[in-house]
């Protein structure tokens, strides 16, 4: 009996010495694992949060659509608990996160660093309501501005008339319509190159990073360098999952979220964009069009109705637009 008691005591002591197993958080990305955002921003964030939690969290990446291949599925993955965290493009789920589509308006966002800082400032000011309040917000960001990548030469706004043009969000689609072009939605990043190649679209509002990530460099023949609207992006976490975590685990997530994540994302995205552009142009014959002041003014005038419509059709639209513009100016002054 004495030997049994000693063995039980030893077993209990060993059990107490073993640290508790880390809580695994599943982080979904529709991008390939080697793509810049997934590899250098999201995966690095996951590692930093895991380390900061002192063993309480193990944030694991599931890239390449492992949990759900369609970029439009990512929001539902988080809502259903299939993924705990996901990178979400609001434009793929029209009607959700409407306030943040202000970033899609043309001639506002100049780069991802200031755009992402301004997006998070809208969160802290309480201007992003509705769906934003249903999740733990890890990051609310914007891409750099989208130019026009096309398979035909389109320089003047009038040259888009009747052309099928794709954009990754509803507000940019509205801007396309204002140019008398045919707005084409429902084409996600992974199907962009194929859609251009098959002639389903002759152009798309996009940026150099997406051209590289989704292998569109060999299809595009022209790229018009104008700030035609940025792509809002979100890193969302299932709120119930976050609430279930320990205080230490929550603190590790919080320390690397919000303004800190926006800054990390924006600076990395802008640096990558310049590198991606160089690689694409070195490997492909693409005519880059840099409009002069007169041509830029033509585009601004032609697309101004998109901004007017957005303000009129969005609840509290004028206040959101004014606040976003002010925050952009503030961020640009310090970056």
Automatic annotation (TrEMBL):
It comes from the Bacteria. GO terms for biological process: transmembrane transport. Pfam families: DctP. It is found in: Periplasm. The lineage of its organism: Bacteria, Pseudomonadati, Pseudomonadota, Alphaproteobacteria, Rhodobacterales. Coiled coil: none annotated. This is C4-dicarboxylate ABC transporter substrate-binding protein. Residues 1-22 form the signal peptide. GO terms for cellular component: periplasmic space. Keywords: Periplasm, Signal.
């Amino acid at each position: 009996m004495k030997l049994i008691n000693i063995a039980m005591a030893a077993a209990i002591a060993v059990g107490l010495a073993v640290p508790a197993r880390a809580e695994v958080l599943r982080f979904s990305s529709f991008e390939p694992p080697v793509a810049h955002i997934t590899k250098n921003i999201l995966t690095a964030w996951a590692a930093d949060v895991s380390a900061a939690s002192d063993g309480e969290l193990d944030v694991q990446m599931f890239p390449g659509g492992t949990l759900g291949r369609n970029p439009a599925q990512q929001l539902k993955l988080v809502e259903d608990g299939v993924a705990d965290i996901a990178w979400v493009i609001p434009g793929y789920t029209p009607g959700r996160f409407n306030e943040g589509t202000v970033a899609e308006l043309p001639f506002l966002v100049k780069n991802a660093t200031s755009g992402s800082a301004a997006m998070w400032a809208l969160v802290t000011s309480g201007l992003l309501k509705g769906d934003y309040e249903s999740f733990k917000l890890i990051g609310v960001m914007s891409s750099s501005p989208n130019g026009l990548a096309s398979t035909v030469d389109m320089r003047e706004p009038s040259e888009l008339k009747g052309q099928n043009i794709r954009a990754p969000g509803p507000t940019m689609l509205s801007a396309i319509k204002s140019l008398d072009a045919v707005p084409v939605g429902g084409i996600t990043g992974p199907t962009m190159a194929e859609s251009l190649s098959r002639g389903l679209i002759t152009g798309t509002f996009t940026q150099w990073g997406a051209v590289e990530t989704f292998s569109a460099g060999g299809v595009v023949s022209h790229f018009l360098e104008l700030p035609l609207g940025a792509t809002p992006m979100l890193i969302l976490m299932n709120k119930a999952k976050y609430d279930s975590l320990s205080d230490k685990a929550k603190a590790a997530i919080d320390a690397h979220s919000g303004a800190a994540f926006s800054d990390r994302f924006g600076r990395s995205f802008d640096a990558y964009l310049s590198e991606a552009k160089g690689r694409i142009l070195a490997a492909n014959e693409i005519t880059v069009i840099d409009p002069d002041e007169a041509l830029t003014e033509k585009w601004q005038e032609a697309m101004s109705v998109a901004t007017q419509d957005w303000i009129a059709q969005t609840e509290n639209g004028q206040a959101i637009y004014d606040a976003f513009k002010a925050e952009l100016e503030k961020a640009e002054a310090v970056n």
